[in-house]
Each structure stands twice: as C-alpha cells, then as structure tokens.
Write a structure and sequence with these properties.
The chain is α/β, with parallel strands linked by helices. The chain has helices at residues 3-21, 24-27, 40-45, 71-81, 99-108, 122-130, 145-157, 169-173, 198-204, 222-230, 240-243, 248-260, and strands at 51-55, 58-59, 63-64, 85-89, 113-116, 135-139, 161-166, 182-186, 212-216, 233-238. It has one domain (3-32, 39-260): Alpha-Beta Barrel (TIM Barrel), CATH 3.20.20.70. The strands form two sheets. The protein has an eight-stranded parallel beta barrel, surrounded by five helices. The radius of gyration is 17 Å and the shape is globular. The model has no long low-confidence stretch (mean pLDDT 97). The structure holds indole-3-glycerol phosphate (IGP). Its EC number is 4.1.1.48. It catalyses: 1-(2-carboxyphenylamino)-1-deoxy-D-ribulose 5-phosphate + H(+) = (1S,2R)-1-C-(indol-3-yl)glycerol 3-phosphate + CO2 + H2O.
Amino acid sequence: MNILEKIIADKEIEVKLRKKLIPIEQLEESVLFDRETISLSNKLKNSPSGIIAEHKRRSPSKSVINQDLNVFDVAKGYEKAGVCGMSVLTDGKYFGGSLDDLLIARASCKLPLLRKEFIIDPYQIVEARAQGADVILLIAAILSKDEIKYYSELAQSLNLEVLLEVHNEKDLKKSLFDSITMIGVNNRNLKTFEVSLETSKELSSIIPDDFIKVSESGISNVESIKELQQYGFKGFLIGENFMKTSNAGESAKEFIEKLEK
Ligand SMILES: O=P(O)(O)OC[C@@H](O)[C@@H](O)c1c[nH]c2ccccc12
C-alpha cells in the first residue's frame, strides 16, 4: 500500500465511527450550520498576492513541522498578515490536526477557512459546514467522476466552495463541473512526496478559464509565485514555509510584503 492508500483505509474506519458517534442530523443542529459563509474565490480574484496559508503540525513527508504554535495565534497572525484564506488540516493520524482546530480557527478570525481533509464520504462535507468551514478540498485522485459531481453539488447546496485538487491531466478531465470554483494543482505527488512546480506550469494551459487556478505545495519564495502568476495562477497554498518558523503569522506577513512590493 502506498501512503495515500493507507490514509484512505484509515479514513474509512474513522468516518464510519464518527457517523455512529454523531449522526448527521445532530451536525445539522450546530449553531454554525446556518452562518453566512465567506467566499475564498472572490478574495483570490481581487488580491495581488493570493496567499492561502495553512495550519499544519506535521505531515507524512516531513514528520514534525511545528507542534508548539497554537491555532488561535496562527489564525490571528495569518489574518493580520493579509492572507486571502486559511487552510486547516483536520486529519489527526498523519497530519496532527483535528476538527477542533477548525473550530478554534473559526472563533479566531474572519478569514475564509478551507477544511483540508481526505474527503471520501458526504458526511465529512456536512461536518465541515457544522464546524465553521467555508471551503472544502476534494482530491480527484481518490474520487470517481460521479463522486466529484455529487460531492461538489452537495457542497454548493450547503454554500461551501470547492477547491478541487488535481495531480495530472487524467484527474482534471473528470473534474470539470459547474459546482466547482477553484482547481488546485498539487505540486507534491501524494504517492512519492516528490515536489515540482513544473506540475502547475504543465497543467495550467488545460485548466479552463472559468476556474480559479491555485498552485499547492512546495512554495517557499516569492519568485516562484511571480513565475506561477505568469501561468495564470491566482491562489497559492503555503504550509510548511510559514509553519516551520516560530511565528507563522509574522512569516506570512513578511512574505506578502515582499510579494506586493
Ligand atoms: O506545506 P506545503 O508544501 O506548503 O503544502 C501545503 C499544502 O499544499 C499541502 O499540505 C497539501 C496539499 N494538498 C493536500 C492534501 C492533503 C494533505 C495536505 C495537502
């Protein structure tokens, strides 16, 4: 089994358990369920920098990135830095995150929040809504075309935006639905962890213009962003580069200042 297959096998067990513990009807009673969501795609359209900053404690590729920062400070710091949105990893076993992280981020800032999760069941989409997310990630590599259509339409009906993640042309081909606003090209191969910004550049020309292009992973300098902007990218998802420092918000602030100069 490769790492992605392992993550999915564990996720199936986890979701089954969660569904038993908290029935979907109960999620729909959350006070956050009817809150007005905030559009990430609108922010990206109108921003010169387009940074989506991530909260990520560890990852299978890097093990520990940072266990000392608290979500409250990170969210406040990112907001102060002027990012367009915040991504919160909610997977526990492989990334050290939780749904509580999402809830705390929600309570700490007014940024659009992306629930960064391996979504394999509609239950997790309702859960994202109930815990204060504005955007969900759908990963094309782990979903069928029918699932992508169904899940993105469900998200849309809950006023959640969808960032659809692709790794190659095959992923992209099965993912072009009206219910999706943003396409994210992951520069990291989730099976081998290899990172190459070339992936974004190569796929940029075949992403139709009606989708906002986001480049994800392995971005550590403003030069890369300036280059990717030439290929039509409007959003840039950055985790480790900020999280590995002792003050993620301050790092994001310096980065954005340099980028917008
Ligand atoms: O820390 P980085 O290299 O800046 O990457 C952030 C983000 O793109 C990455 O965490 C990510 C992109 N897609 C994912 C899917 C699942 C888990 C994590 C991810």
